[in-house]
Each structure stands twice: as structure tokens, then as C-alpha cells.
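Thread title: Can someone regenerate the structure for this chain?

I was given the following input by a collaborator and told the matching C-alpha cells would be attached. They weren't. Posting the sequence so someone can regenerate them.
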Amino acid sequence: MQEQLRHLSHRILCVQEDERHRISIELHDEVAQVLTGINLHLATLTKETIGNSNNFKRKVTHTQRLVERSLEVIHQFAVQLRPPALDDLGLIPALYSYMRDFGNQRGLNIRITSFTRDRIEELDDDKRTVLFRVAQEALTNVAKHAQASLVNLNIQKFENLICMEIIDNGRSFSVKNAMRYRKKKRLGLIGMRERVEMVGGQFTIESNPNQGTVVRAEIPLVHGEEG
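Best answer:
Regenerated them for you:
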């Protein structure tokens, strides 16, 4: 039964990731193109206006600004669903980009250190995606609950595995209680653990008073069932 549940969780998370990818592409390729076309049409109307029509021009300009803002929101939403850098450039550039933007938005000082970029990019797409999602969820939790001022994300290689740690200097919490109860606000922690385990990795959290919290994901370079 446990193996069946784990397999089901694996399938659900894979389907969810595929759906995120599809929605991201749709937002960029379909919705964004439509809004861009509207904006170009409004610009053409402004140029072709004859006579004294300042009021009309002001309305068109205002509408253009709304469209531009909509494009920005769609871009941000699409990046959150599936950052293009993760597919185009790799895990480390995607993390740098996401953490920079997230830190600026939330007022967090976030630092990233990677000693093994070449080996990290050797991980398959599923494993790189898992590490990105764990970092994304961990940072969201820090911003919501930890009241931290500094977050360090470290990635390095130990023997045949990649270890990623997200360390904050914020408030601590009871890890045992948080992982025991499937409350809505704790599903993020359980989801991180299940993502890591579905690619053969190990997930741990350490949280101590006056020491902050450490979220750790260890991902094997080669899955134990492969080869």
C-alpha cells in the first residue's frame, strides 16, 4: 500500500509539473500575443486620429498602460509556473534569477553558493525540477512564517549525490508536529518531502531556537533503481 501511495504521489506531481509547463507556454504563446496585438492596434488608432481628440488619445494611452501591466503580470505568472531559464539555461541560472526577483519583492537578503554547477546540470530534468520546487517552496515558507532577514542557499556534491540546503536566520518551529499533521498550511512541507523521495532522494528539516531553520534535499546523481 505504501509503495502504491508513493507511486500515486509520483504520478500526481509529474502530471502537475507537465500541466504547469503547458499553462506557461499557453500564457506566453497565446494570451500574451493577443494582448500585444491589442496594444499595437491602439497605437495605430492614436496615430490615425484626425482633429482635436485629446480625450480620445488619453483613453487610448490609459488602455495601453493597462495592457502593458497585464503583460507584466502574465509574464510573472508564467515564470512562477515554469521559469524558462530552468529549461533553457539550467538549474543554477534559474535559481539565481528566481531568488533575485523573490528577494527584491519580499525584502529578503538571499545568497546562493554553488560548488558543482557542471555536475548539477548532469541531473535529469525531473531531479533539477525537484530541487527548484523545493527551493521555491522553502523560500515561500521563509517569507510567510520565519520573519528572517537572511537566507543562504548552498548546493554542493557529496560522493554520488547533490545536496541543497536552504538556511534562514528566522523563527524556529516544531518540525515533528509540522510533518505529523496534514494541515493545509503544512502541505508544502509534505509536498517537498514527497517530491524529493519520488526521485530517490532524502529530505530533512532542522529547526532550533535562535538558530533558524535548515531545509535539506539530497538527490542521487543516479537513481538507485537505474542501471
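The chain has a mean pLDDT of 80.
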